[in-house]
Fold DNA-binding NarL/FixJ family response regulator.
Amino acid sequence: MIRVLLADDQALIRGGFRALLDAEDDIEVVGEAPDGRRAVELVRELRPDVAIIDVQMPVMDGIEATRLISADAELADVRVVILTNYGVDEYVYNALRAGAGGFLVKDIEPEDMVRAVRTAARGDALLSPAITRRLIREFVSRPPHVDHGPGADVLTRREREVVGLVAHGLSNEEIALRLVISPATAKTHVSRAMVKLDARDRAQLVVFAYEAGLVSARERD
């Protein structure tokens, strides 16, 4: 059973999502929060598999809530998905950098919402190739984010190549075809890169790739 927490300041939206998700045999909504602070409290209390958190809420916004959840080692298994009205924008970029595993827009189709929850629960990033390309195009040209975490030098040449392909939204199978390696080998490279970079999931690899310059200007175009 996939256990889900919903955090949104609009009760109508929470109720709609709850009705949709609770109708599935393998999904259960275990809690609701009207603001970011309460969302963090309930995540710590209930330990859901997936926390769907609105990016803009009172008391504490979704970005800060995501940052607190991601920074807590005891909550490493909780997958945060950001909910937004706006699609790809500054909020989404900051949320991904804070530790979110992906994002959803509020006008998502019901079947896509259910599929997204299952995808997040598996630990896969909710970032399509089109989304990653737009993220790169809109944000990679900005001044680099100052970070004291591991740099690209901790990766092997092949791992840097693989992370760059992840940043373009390629799956392990697609990376394997591109590099003429097995899907298992591609998965191993991705996993090792995540460990070395202390990345929670593939979404974090995407953020790292363009902030570290692993995606060239030519590739961005």
Q: What stands out?
A: Residues 217-221 have pLDDT under 50 and may be disordered. The beta strands are 2-7, 27-33, 50-54, 79-84, 103-105.
